[in-house]
Each structure stands twice: as structure tokens, then as C-alpha cells.
Write a structure and sequence with these properties.
The protein is 76% helix and 0% strand. Helix 7 crosses helix 8 (174-193). It contains 8 helices and no strands.
């Protein structure tokens, strides 16, 4: 529909006549909309989405390195859940992260589909367990978003490290070749000590 066309003019005429009624409906709509708008914590939403995007970026790079025959995952448009399934297929340290990554995905989905979502510690049990296991003392005073952000840094770092290691030691054979290289390297080190 182009400005100035007969169809455009018809819509303008229609809305001109409807504006008084639309204003009345808007007055009834406004309190509900404002309550929903103010009820969302944009900072937390943005922080969760940023964490999810960063994890997906590094997880995708890892999956592509681990499975070189797959090619470019961004072109295949697979879902985040499908990426998690691919990541589960290899026995590497990445598997320790997957429960936490799934928690972040569930939180992202909850935020995307429910207007009044609040983060609670129950949403991040695996994340909290991993962070507390890596720390020397239990982190009880952290808010859930702080655990999520710390986990995100760890998860991205581990995915990036494994990606680089696979690319260096087994670029053609992926995670399977890397695990074989790692096993051979460990045996070589053990024989050197004997």
C-alpha cells in the first residue's frame, strides 16, 4: 500500500473516523499495559538474553569443531535444543555444563513467554552447584542473575578452549579425534614418568 493510493486513502478515512473510539479504548488499555510494562525488569531480561546469546555463540563454535562434517550450523538453522543434543553426543568436559546451559535456556523461554517472570534460586540449581563446586566457599548471597553471569563466563571459556584444542589437534576428525589424541598424549606422559 503506497501513500496517496486509493487503498491508503481509504485506510486514512477509516482511522480518522475511528480515532475518538480508539482513544476511549486506549484509556481502558493504558493501566493494564503500564502495569505489565513496569512489571518487567528489563535489565535482568537483557542480562539473561545476553548470557543465552553468548553461550549459544560459543556452543555453536564448539559443536562445529567437534563435528566437522556438519558444516556451518548457522546456515542449517537448527534450534538451541538441537544444539544441546549435539553437544551431549561427545564425552568431554562440555557435558558438565549442559544442565546449566539447559537451565539458562528454560529461563530465557520463560522470560520470552510470561510477562511476570521472576528469577528464583530454584531455576538455577545446576548452575549454583557448579559455581559453588568451583569456588572455595558456598556463594549464598549472590542473586540468581549473578550466578547465571558467572556460569556464562565459565561455559563460554570452556567451549572456546575445547574448540581451539579440537581445531589444533583434530581439525578433520573433531571431538572423536581430539579424545583419541588426548588419550595418546596421556599415555605418552605416563610412559615418560615410568
Amino acid at each position: 500500500m503506497r501513500a496517496g493510493s486509493p487503498e491508503f486513502q481509504a485506510w486514512v478515512e477509516y482511522f480518522r473516523d475511528e480515532i475518538p473510539e480508539m482513544k476511549n479504548r486506549h484509556l481502558a488499555f493504558q493501566p493494564e499495559f503500564q502495569a505489565l510494562w513496569r512489571g518487567k525488569d528489563e535489565r535482568t531480561i537483557g542480562r539473561v538474553l545476553k548470557c543465552h546469546l553468548l553461550i549459544e555463540f560459543y556452543l555453536t563454535k564448539y559443536i562445529q569443531a567437534a563435528n566437522p562434517a556438519l558444516g556451518d550450523l548457522n546456515k542449517s538453522r537448527i534450534t538451541f535444543s538441537q544444539k544441546l543434543a549435539l553437544a551431549k553426543s561427545h564425552v568431554t568436559l562440555i557435558r558438565l555444563l549442559l544442565d546449566g546451559i539447559e537451565e539458562i535456556n528454560k529461563i530465557r523461554n520463560k522470560i520470552a513467554h510470561k510477562l511476570d517472570t521472576t528469577l528464583v534460586v530454584g531455576d538455577i540449581k545446576s548452575i549454583q552447584q557448579l559455581i559453588n563446586a568451583l569456588e572455595e566457599f558456598e556463594q549464598k548471597n549472590k542473586r540468581p542473575i549473578e550466578f547465571i553471569e558467572e556460569f556464562t563466563q565459565i561455559a563460554c571459556m570452556i567451549c572456546a578452549e575445547f574448540t581451539l584444542a579440537i581445531q589444533e589437534h583434530a581439525p578433520k576428525t573433531g571431538a572423536v579425534g581430539y579424545l583419541e589424541w588426548q588419550k595418546a598424549e596421556l599415555q605418552r606422559l605416563l610412559q615418560g614418568r615410568a
